[in-house]
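Teaching assistant here, posting this on the class forum so everyone can see the example we discussed in section. The complex has three components, and the goal was to see what a joint structure prediction looks like when all of them are supplied at once.
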Amino acid sequence: MTSPVEAEDAQASTALDEETESKADGKETKGHTGRSPGQLMWARFKRDRTGVVCAWVVIAYFAIALLAPVISWLYGKDPYTLYALEPDYPFLLDDFEMPAGDLGGMSGEFWFGVEPVIGRDVFTMLLYGMRTSLFMAFIITFLSVATGVLIGMVSGFFGGKVDYWLGRTTDFFLAFPSQLFFIAFMPIVIALFVDPADETPTYLRAVAMVLVTWFLGWMGMARLVRSSVLSLREREFVEAAKVSGASRWRIVRKEILPNIVTPILVQGTYMLPSAILSIAFLSFVGVGFVEPTPDWGRMFAIGAQNYEQNPTYMFFPGIALFVFVLAFNLLGDSVRDAFDPKTGR
Amino acid sequence: MKLTRSRSMRAIVVAVAAGSLALTGCSNDNGKKDNGKDGSAKKEDAAKQSKPVAYGDAAASTGPAKEVAGAQSGGTIGVYLQSDLSHLDPGQIYVSDAGQFSRLTHRKLTNFLEDKDGNLTVVGDIATDSGQSSNGGKTWTFTLKDGIKDDEGNEITSADVRHTIERMYSKVIFDGPSFVQTWLSGKDYRKKLPDGPYKGKHLPDDVLETPDDKTIVFHFDQPRPDLPQALAMAGYSIVPEKRDTKEKYDKAPAALGPYKIAERKPGKSLKMVKNPHWDPKTDVVRHQYVDGYDFTTTVEQASQTKRLVADQGEAKNFIQFTTSVDPGQIQDVVSDPEVNKRTIKGFQPYVWQMNFNLNKDVVKDKKVRDAITYAIPNKSMIGADGGKYGGELAGGLFAPTLPGYDPEYDPFEKSKTPMGNMKKAKELLKEAGVKEGTKITYAHANSPRAEKQKLIIKRTLEKLGFDPQLKSIDAATYYEQIGKVKNPYDLYITGWGQDWPSPGTVVTPVYDGDLISDGASNYSHINDPKVNELIQQALTEEPEVAAKTWEQAHHRIVEEINPAAPIYYAKQLQLFGSNIGGARYSTESSYVNINDLYLKKP
Amino acid sequence: MLQFLIRRLTGAVMIMFLIGAFTFFLFYTVPQDFAALSCGKNCTPENIAVIRENLGLDKPITTQFWEFMVGIVAGRDFAAGSCPAPCLGQSFASGEFVWDSIMDRFPLTLSLTIGGLVIFLFLGLASGLLAAWKRGTAVDKTVSGASMVLSSFQIYFLGPIVLGLLVYQTGWMENPKYHEFTEDPLAWAVGLLIPWAVMATIFVAQYTRMSRSTMIEQLQEEHVRTARAKGMGRKYVFFRYAWRGSLTPIVTIIGMDLSSLLAGGVVTEFTFDLAGIGRLAVESSVTKDLPLTMGVMMFGAFFILILNIIVDLCYAYIDPRVRLA
């Protein structure tokens, strides 16, 4: 479960040239003295229209996820009630247990239609599902990035034995076929914590999912950081710093870290949607969140089964995911461009 | 990374779950009959047909089988399966997919012959008739037909029949039915012949006797009127002694029937070709119209349905073997007349029921059990399984495929309140004095259908004032886990189907208190002296008399004990390609009648 | 070089051993009776005991593990016959030898991977280089934009739609099916065309974006600019200097994709109802078939490890600044 992420990490492994960057910066900063690199980056980012639009889209997704309870309160439905069973809503489903109305039962009452078979409200299911997925993905990405950066830095900078053993450890984790690992080990992780008679609490499933995906989620980042550091270590300016007697810590902080922030950030941006897909994958195979916890991935997975019969049920969650992944990928590109204008478009 | 869909994996889960209980049941309704505007099978149809099975004489058992009108010879039929056959060794076969396969390649002492209306007669398969009983039904004698050979041309003798029974005592066999062994040697039959026939030992002659090459005699300690039906199970198919390779036999069994295995790639495909040593004159049931069968064992339910609905290219020659139409596509199938005429419809032998664990305090009070039974919205539960083409409201615990099924029987008035009777349920709970917020544990398999049904059960229990604890169990081990006597769950849904069309194969395994043990199928742990007594009585009675006793036991169970709330009777809906001829719902298998198929344009 | 290889190969063997041990012992932490999984409807304690003995589950866990590991090197004997090395044990569920099952499925997985790879590598690199060459023009924008959109799709989304259009609606093509390459190369290619095309559509985007952006980066590297300044032709510099420099990241990603595809493209196989390693893997974990799970995990791990070593060798070859560590 790694590939789209790696799409960009590789370019980071080709070294970034501080000199060219500073030259480029020099050009741009003419007449704007006294601006920090962060401000410069921000200024460049603001000029990138695609990037700004995507940023807003992504912010909107997060806002919707955060405000899901409020929105659903205003809208007057929730994702848990089986409306088809409520006497207030007769005839929501037809004889085949499909939504009775056209377009998956879309109406003023149910904006995105109703779920086949048990008749929950698709709109609020989607809101809450996005909420679940985004928060989970956020945690997984954060943990994976932190772990990966730490291990990659240590490995790349210290080299030698440390690098060898960390490299082998990374190899060990990388050698796991990740999809199989997720399927096989999620039930095991859960079984380690729960008494068989009790209901598995939702938070525990969340923890187990985070553990399993984190377990196999950090190596891409570690390898990327390591190879960047490795290339940088051989570079003249690092050699120069070493010769001038700078401490290791200082070299890491002042010479190396600033140069790998871009790939880390870009990689991180790509890891988030990939984490969402991983969570979705777990839900698909029945080892992730289970009913009734709303889950984005499970929704469009179920919808895809019968997309010919009931296109709208796949359409809304599917398109929502597509737009989100696209926006996040474009945002990643824009962020990279803003940090590192020489790649440009 | 591009992620996978769940459906596929779930399909396997479902297949596994279904496999654990799906058996080679027989059912007795004529699904072909369209009833008014609603094309789904009706339980009234079934009722007409659910009479006890007749036992055929030598004339009825003499081949060849009656020709299917318009049948052509030649060509190869394609078969869609979701996953590979669980076993090929007949001794291990208890589940439906392998059972259906067995009809093509294995032969048994007896077999079911089905007429065009779905009436069943037990006839001799390799025996000359359905068996001669003497000594008040305690002794059964079978004589073998001439000219029965395996696919290498070896004549089958009574020694092979004895070998077939005896090998089921050994450790090679652990999955098949155990009726006949238990009847012959008691519950711990394995101890009577620990190594089976493999070390030269045999059962004593007062148990199983082979006076000559053509005769085999079974001796029981009590009347066993159902023996001819039990021996018609796929599990009792003949394994020739010379060909038995013990564990390896499960990969390459000998063929006695019209087709033999030509090539098998486990988990992928299976090719079957004609068995030249099968003599049609000896077989009154099977045909050999097509040259062979090509199994593809990797096609999921939804894809099978899509391919057969589209009916393009090679899909025209394909059938669904044991899979049903994908519930999500039922509408597409039945509302298009062109597609609809390529379906078979009928009942499956399963009754889905909500088992109450009678060992648990929460459901000890019958009023609580009745309350939950009244409250369950059966119609919604069926909805999660495909709607009216997926199932029919269940009034009792006898499926429409069972002799003695009564369509009017509905003690909980489910036909009046298909969405549940909350008012009545709440009254009962009040009488029982159940406190608001009482914890109740509901266990379910993690299959897609059970996941949907769990939401309905959760809502129902919440409305009743319980605090439902939902416990998801891996579908692969679901029945094993709830099959433990000391399982910690209060409620769980199970589906049970008959092994042959006799209530004895339902009431005995599922509701007999003497049979409570780990892994046994008395999931509710009901142990009622009256029921136990009725069971013992009925088991030794002739079918016509027994039917009354079974009915009495059934009513006692449902009305006075209520160990399991009836939810719905499962239905069958299968599709086949447009070039397939002779396809019909088989009452015997509750699937397509595999032995009569031909290709219209070979 | 030789020392590097020996060291890495020893490491690979150790890692595979560790993965085997990790999987094996973690599986046994689950309060689950494996014997119960193999018994069908008649799941009585007596039958479970028989199965347990048949499967060797009555022996201590460490003995079972040791027998499994020894079997890989030396082969083993089962009731169902002797299993030659490399013996990955006998499946709990089907009774097949795991190695046979894997070998039976592997040709399909290999065909899917190789066919897909050839298409998406060729298209991806070509379109990426084109975009880099025409940087900033409408061509560049179209190629980059399209690749971005395509890469946001998923196989399970695109697959059914393509199947719906080409197979179910129009009947232009048959459902994907695997034929042996050695028997009928044409049927082999035709049968797998749809999966290849769908895989390629989605994977190609990464290669386009990657090759484009690294080319652009490389073109700004000093040695490339120097070469250009020395008066070398644009084409020559483009394909001789910059191209080589941009290979490193592409090799990385090829290695990653290849290994994950060879270890089992679960999605592709399920979308198109094909039986390869991925399906085997999922079946094994659904049925908790430990030997099969172990076998597939180790088989997948084998490819991942070997390809990693090859990728590292390529790094050194392409970029002499990277030393073999």
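For the discussion questions: Chain B has two domains: 83-295, 346-571. Chain B has 17 helices and 20 strands. Think about how each of these relates to the inputs above.
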